[in-house]
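Handout, page 2. Input:
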Amino acid sequence: MDRFILDLLRASGADGWTVTDEIRRGWEFYFIRHALDQNRVRDVEHISLEVYKRFSEGEQEFLGSASAEISPTASRAEAEKLIAQLLSEAALIRNPLYSLHPPRAAESAPCEEIALREIAGDYIRAFAGVEESEDADINSYEIFTDSVTRRIVTSTGIDVTDVYPVSMTEVVVNARRAGHEIELYRMYRSGSCDAAALKANVEDTLRIGRDKLRAEKTPPLGKYDVVFSTDDALSIYRYFIDHMSTNMVYMKMSDFKLGELVAPDEGGDALTVRALRRLDNSSHNAAYDDEGAPVRDMTIIEKGVAKNYYGSRMFSQYLGLEDSFMPGNVAVEGGAASAAELRTGKFLEVVEFSDFQVDPMSGDIAGEIRLGYLHDGDSVTVVEGGSVSGSMRELAGSMRFSKEQKQYNNYLIPSVTRLRGASITGAAGE
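Output:
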């Protein structure tokens, strides 16, 4: 980042500003089957500016803001023009007055060196170790590993730098049976590579592909227990996590209140949710959030009771919170029963949805079933079609989740979640 950008901001007349300079140095690999097709090295820089303008209308004071990205090769004249434009835009935004974060030290120092060779090697070895078969195998996969260096400088005196890994892999698998073949796609995000988890996830996808080719139509089940054991469960837990954010509370999109239960006690497991400064293999292990506030461990919900809100500086100040931040990692503690105990009796375990969603305001859930396992207590039938629906406001009180946990990048959640009495419609023709 050229020094003149900071000089221009200081002289611009802005009432505050933030500069974020992110440099990504990465490796990319493209495999067909397990043969390397091509690879390359990347070195990319992104610089973003945000400026703030304070103004009054009568007795009301405001702090408007506007942001944009500026090219790392921008000239002084180009930067000056962009800053002037942002100041004009900021003067049109009527956010009630608040103050920006002051400098504060993080609890622990960021990592200093990212071993891209080692991370990429872990990915390649994990894919090489996947157990394939004649009826299900890997078609292709791509690996992207980055070392991110992010510097945040603000008008209030914050000047911090983070270094952390970010990686992503995409894989396509094929499954075939009796002359029919299907293709499944998966994408996994992380920081460094959890080779064992990646191998297990890909092998689960191969199994899903094989089972999908022998699936029957989902019958109309009416009210039925549904088990979630894939990343679709994230939407369920995000419903509670999002409702603890200061922006949703301030805008009255959330009715969660500190010291009160986030769900009625109807025999389910009580949620405990924590923000974590660090989580192994996460891509969100920065010591500071996007506004330069230090990230720390914090309990958000404890045994079903709302404990601490989190969020951006603006909405947190509107609620009277000074020491706020935006978490990078979140962990949901396990429940009372094991995953095996939650998979007993009659239930439908859905492992593939076309699109599963939980409405962040109403809590309504909906998803079309692409593959599930129907347990009737004695036998298991592979099914597809139909849909799952309901409302977390009605289902949360009796929700159960396993002792065991599973990680999805920056989220650590129970590996199995069971909703009692969701609505299951059958596939067309049933």
